[in-house]
Please model this.
Amino acid sequence: MADGQGVTPEDMQKYLNLDADGDASILVDMISTAEDAVTGAIDDTIGIDVYRAYPLFNQAVRVLVDYMYYSRGALSDQNKAYPPSYAYMINSIRWKIQRDQDAKVGETDG
Model:
């Protein structure tokens, strides 16, 4: 995966260890949903390209897609809405991206 590109269906197929690309369209939808969920949990006014530059953002997307992919049809039976590692990543990204965005605002104000 190239820096700043974000998670791709091909990336997810490798991550999930899938042989065929029959689920590529499903993965595209899940990646989009996961990116929306992560940015919505942090700050949806920041552009997706900014988020995609953070490796931890891309890993959070992978973790959420993995969870959604293998939990299809069983989400109502789950005890947790998200994997614990996902929540950890969201908190880590939140503070890093907010600090970086505040620094950029400070550069333009000065």
In short: Residues 84-109 form the longest helix (26 residues).
